[in-house]
């Protein structure tokens, strides 16, 4: 082979190497096991979707880029297994819902120091979900620490839930105190 025929091939493989070495995250390129709780280079969250298998016999999982932009600059981020475990979330979540807050075990794990203080991506996601329900996550975590069985119920039924914040997690969390260690 002459150099002129090898050059395009060399350039192609070099571009792949540069793409990989720069660590660019493209949701559609992620394996489904790493999709949930990841953030693409564009700053948009990755989400796991299901579709009917082409053979019609089952369900296939696909990683897609959502339209949700993470306000904190966390692009090129794939959540660690340690945070997934510490926060009590599942990488096979398809569609994340605020209903999880109604489960005391979930809120307990989310508000625990290993999650709340060390896993900003997951906390940011659930901070925004809670805010959509009119609840501030730091308040929920404080109530969870004081009375785990009734934390979310009290906030929702008493009408004491705070209005949704105007800005994102990063600014609101600075002004709110972190939950005390359990």
UniProtKB/TrEMBL annotation:
First and last residue of the signal peptide: 1-23
Database matches in InterPro entries: PAR1
Alphabetically ordered keywords of this record: Signal
Alphabetized Pfam families for the sequence: PAR1
Protein name: PAR1 protein
Source organism of the structure: Stylosanthes scabra
